[in-house]
């Protein structure tokens, strides 16, 4: 949090600014103090100093996250020692003196014995009587009158800042991977990617890929019928409660199949679970290639395909989709593609993403160091339904033409969302700009979802290398 003080100088107890404004950060919060500036007033020069400090901090963090090495060194700093009150009347506690003119506006000067501190209203000077030389700051700070503080005293010290760089994170090898398609039986690209990989396995044997890959047609009955699901959405059946529920004669097919897949590739949350599941999906929305993860702390970086990252902040026990069975799963969404249809361009994007994932895992397992950095992502915030008749619950509007096919655009207050069947425009009313995705997804009509809304965020990816025995 930035605080504005009447006192001079930029103070940052957790932020050390070296010459040339190189910024070294510790792992604690920081405050920026900039002054002098009276309460209730903004001065352009003070504003510009504060804004530059914030911009430089952001720039430093970006460079640090991108792997830049920052050389260490000694930095002059001040350690708080004690506070000093104004001279006061012993009975009324009213002030009897003000800061001496020779001390006013001299924050961080060196106080020596005999230096003037206060000028009494009766004309006498109160002098510094300590043997130890110290440095005053927050001199005559208006907000500190009520706290009984005329100034603080500090001792100068030298901070030794080490050379810093984002740490190299060692992770276990990804020994087993699964590629799953047909979790939704009418999302055809994943079905054909799995079938093509199974053809390659028959032709080339287990050496078809540089790592062991299991291929699974997740929902074969739904695939055969070219339906999203037979009885219930299987991609909502992989939370811990559903996976552990007893199977009865009335259990839906997809619940039974989910438990079979959990035995094959899990059990979910156990050390025996497969290392990574890449679950393949299509969307009728214009989302391009999107990777969906349940946390922001563990994910695979694919660099050769234009890709968006979507983060779902859900505890792993509540995570409901197939990839959550594995230790490090994610799903690939590629669109737009109609249900029950396969488009060659969408198929090729999905196949390339799978091939690059396998290639990444092979390089990682072989010891390649992958540089870290900042990656733009979107965090799910909420879902928005279509306008509906309050009695019949039928739709009264469709996605506005100006929003259709603009997944991940920035929605601002007043932007069109829906066009009612009577011709009126329904506009975005939120003050916070957010990003819509899964816009007009055909499969979400039954769920009462016109689109989801997300907030843009930055994921910091560390430099990673395989952990060696």
UniProtKB/TrEMBL annotation:
The keyword Cell membrane applies. It comes from the Eukaryota. Residues 175-355 form the Succinylglutamate desuccinylase/Aspartoacylase catalytic domain. It catalyses: an N-acyl-aromatic L-alpha-amino acid + H2O = an aromatic L-alpha-amino acid + a carboxylate; an N-acetyl-L-cysteine-S-conjugate + H2O = an S-substituted L-cysteine + acetate. InterPro entries: AspA/AstE_fam, Aspartoacylase, AstE_AspA_cat, Aste_AspA_hybrid_dom. Residues 74-156, 374-455 form the AstE/AspA barrel-sandwich hybrid domain. Gene3D superfamilies: 2.20.25.160, Zn peptidases (3.40.630.10). Its main location: membrane. Its EC number is 3.5.1.114. It is a peripheral membrane protein. One of its GO terms (molecular function) is aminoacylase activity. Keywords: Cell membrane, Cytoplasm, Hydrolase, Membrane, Metal-binding, Zinc. It is found in: Apical cell membrane; Cytoplasm. Its cofactor is Zn(2+). This is N-acyl-aromatic-L-amino acid amidohydrolase. It comes from Labeo rohita (Indian major carp). The lineage of its organism: Eukaryota, Metazoa, Chordata, Craniata, Vertebrata.
